[in-house]
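Notebook, bench 3.
Goal today: get a predicted structure for UDP-3-O-acylglucosamine N-acyltransferase from Hypericibacter terrae so we can plan the truncation constructs. The sequence was checked against the plasmid map this morning, with no discrepancies at the termini. Length recorded as 368 residues. Pasting the sequence as submitted so the record is complete.
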Amino acid sequence: MPRHRLDALASQIGGRCEGDGSIEVDRPCEPADAGSALDLPLIFSTEALGKLKPGGACAALAVEGLALPPGRFSGLIRVARPRYALAKLLPLFLLTIRPEPGIHPMAIVHATARVAPDVAVGPFTQIGADVEIAAGCVLDGNVTVGERSRLGAGCRLHGGVRLGPDVVLGDRVILHFNVCLGADGFSYATPEPGSIEASAVGSRVQARNHAIERIPSLGRVVIGDDVEIGANSAVDRGTVGDTVILRGTKIDDLVMIGHNCRIGEDCLIAGQVGIAGSCQIGNRVVLGGQVGIADHVTLGDDTMVMASSGVGRDVGPGMVVGGTPALPRQQFFEQLLGLARLKRIAEEIGGLAERVRGLERSKDRPET
């Protein structure tokens, strides 16, 4: 691990150094794992402080305002926003080895592809016809880039990434293991109205699906600058228009984005989210884990959807919604509270019913 002086680290991450800034550290760690004088435990709560072992680390990174034992550390870095500080801190300790520029002899590159001289292409990678790859890109082994695709400067494609034809990546896009961009959308039609169309106007299936015809996708997938997509996620190409993800959006693992969707800037989409086709997602939208969004739904700017929610209709800008079907947060919690009261209400009603029956029985008894 590289070593860093405490005062230099504080300056690089926007923190405030206290005590001896000349102390050197070589590993950020959890408080319970701090055993060496070169460790830098991350202490962001009183609970984390309680896990700190005696001795060992002589410096720490702590949140502003957290009381620490007097004299426990010879040097400190104080930060106001711990997670933001981590985003600046951890890259300084990464042991990344950038592959040497050049095309591995076991890669297959079409003669018409245009690859910048400093691009690194790993073994078993296939680059199709009329592909353009800009400077600074790294393509690990076993990557596929379909014909006519365009990769902006500084993109990183990890092993197993699959790009279909006509995929466009902006600058500094990161695609993690086994991401698939540009497969055909889930689009089919039947000669006569099928069960899906019939179910829209009734509660019983009145039609059958026969001769299901595939609708091919002619559109592209277009990804903006600084987008990051997690492992095993998939984005389908548009049917006629494009599927678009705009600048700065971050997508977790195992996310499915259907054809013709448009995702805005700086969105955060957690794992196992499914977005059906033709959805319009605004800027800075946050989708919790396992959220499902029905087709043709629009989410306004700054919308937040709580984890495991199902969204079946449009949501206005700045709304926080949760549940299935998704409701405004306050209404959703009121429903949960109502469900929690059902048992007590049922017991009270049962008790009242028993009292009524007792009164009726007493009326039926002959007077003595």
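The mean pLDDT is 93. The first helix runs from residue 6 to 13.
Flagging this for group meeting.
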